[in-house]
Every structure is written in C-alpha cells, then in structure tokens.
Amino acid sequence: MSLFRVEGLVKRFGGLLATDHVSLEVAPGEIHALIGPNGAGKTTLVNQISGLLQPDAGRVLLDGLDLTPLSMHRRVAAGLSRCFQVTRIFPQQSVRDNLLLAVQAHTGSSFRFLQPRSQVRSLYAAAEQLAERVGLQHSLDRTAGALPHGAQRTLDVALALAAAPKLLLLDEPMAGMGPDESAQMVTLIEALRQDMAVLLIEHDMEAVFRLADRISVLVYGKVLTVGTPDQIRNNPEVQAVYLGTETV
Ligand SMILES: Nc1ncnc2c1ncn2[C@@H]1O[C@H](COP(=O)(O)OP(=O)(O)OP(=O)(O)O)[C@@H](O)[C@H]1O
Ligand SMILES: [Mg+2]
C-alpha cells in the first residue's frame, strides 16, 4: 500500500544514536510531515533517505525498489527528489537557464551543436511549464540570485520537480520566509500532491497542520508517534516534548 518506506534506519555519530531504528511509511499522494525538536535527527534521517549519508543499518524503499545501495544520483533517477535549500541554484544565471539545466539533466540531452531544433524547443517548453507550475513564469528572465528569498526557495522546488519525482523531500521549505511567502509555499505544496507524495520536514506548525495527512514525531532519534494532525495535536506526550502546553 505504501509508496515509500523507511525500515529501521540507524545512524551513529560516535556514541550518539542520531536515528535509532526509524521506520516510516508514505502512501501514494500523501503529504507526510516529520516534526521534532532541534537535534531530534530529522536532517540526519533526510540525508540517509536522499543518499547523502549511508545508514549503519536499515533500508530505504521506493515503489518496491531498495534504494539503500544506490547513489544520490540513482535515487533521483528512481523517483526521489530533494530540495536543497537554495544551494544548488546558479545565482548568476537566469531563472530560465536554471530550469533548462535541470530539465536537460533529467532528459539526458545536452546543449551540443547539431542538436535538433525540435529538441531544444521542447527543453525550453518544459522549463517554461515548470516555471508556470510554481508561479515563476513572470520571472524567467530574472537573475536567480536577485530573486527574493521565497522565490529562490520556489525555484529550488521547481528544480526538484524537473526530475518528475514520485516522492519529494522537503527539508524546512518555509525557513526564513515571511507570512505571505509561507502561504504561497503552502499552496504550492498542496497542489503537488496530485502528482507525487511529499515528505515534509518543517518547524512551521501552522503549515504542517494545514498540509499533512499524517505526522511522524521524532524525538532523540526515535519515532515517538505517528498520526493525523488532530491526533498529534491532542497527544499529551507530543505536547510535552514538542508543542508545549499552549494550544497550537
Ligand atoms: N555529522 C555529524 N557528526 C556528529 N554529530 C552529528 C552530525 N550531524 C548531526 N549530528 C548530531 O545528531 C543529532 C541530530 O541532528 P540533526 O541535525 O539530524 O537534527 P534535526 O532534527 O535536523 O535538528 P534541527 O531541527 O535543529 O534541524 C544532533 O545531536 C546533532 O548534533
Ligand atoms: Mg535539521
């Protein structure tokens, strides 16, 4: 039933168990949020999922395929894309060129001489479609590094979408955003669920409770509980370790 599954992931940093037998499942079309206090192991988990870190034990499975031995690149090709918090944007290039490079990387074509004109045209069309999908169609000719923070984040999501992922990993997409930018990002993520599942790591609880179908709570490297937003909101243990006693 699940599209994506993490089974018993263990990662040790010296004596510290950063992820302690973490298991979770994401259903097709689900937005699954991962929350937890600072240092809970969220980024360490995401890094093992994307392939940046190799786990000491456990497996990562997408659509029945064991991704654990695969490189980051292979995982992307298998359908798992991740946002990189802007770091992979080429700031001197235009939005269009950034998108073209991403599209080209995933279609296997290149900008060599003697390339059929139709192929070049279809790359441009794909880049423009991506821009439209995320609402950057009016910024195609702008220099990526000169965009406001929220728009750069949005471009980063568009670059991840170029790979046509089955599962999109988002590590704090709202970080550093103002309320308007956050609201736009919520709308964008909400629209993605038609085409893919999303694993969302986010500290902005308003966004998490609005978007998530289910929430996993990570504490000291372990999954404390999994549930719907209502179940999580009303869980006394979660309130004690994370949400505080005030109503969220
Ligand atoms: N490369 C590393 N070497 C040693 N310890 C690390 C390393 N990366 C993370 N840690 C430790 O592992 C634990 C989990 O860190 P991680 O960054 O995964 O937490 P997080 O849930 O993403 O926190 P935050 O909400 O602050 O982003 C922390 O105690 C952290 O100090
Ligand atoms: Mg983190």
From TrEMBL:
Record's keyword annotation contains Glycoprotein: no
Source organism per UniProt: Rhodoferax ferrireducens
Residue stretches making up the ABC transporter domain: 4-245
Keyword Membrane: yes
Identification of the protein by name: Branched-chain amino acid transport system ATP-binding protein
Gene3D superfamilies reported for this sequence: P-loop containing nucleotide triphosphate hydrolases (3.40.50.300)
InterPro entries registered for this protein in UniProt: AAA+_ATPase, ABC_AA/LPS_Transport, ABC_transporter-like_ATP-bd, BCA_ABC_TP_C, P-loop_NTPase
Keyword list, A-Z: ATP-binding, Cell membrane, Membrane, Nucleotide-binding, Transport
UniProt cross-references to SUPFAM superfamilies, sorted A to Z: P-loop containing nucleoside triphosphate hydrolases
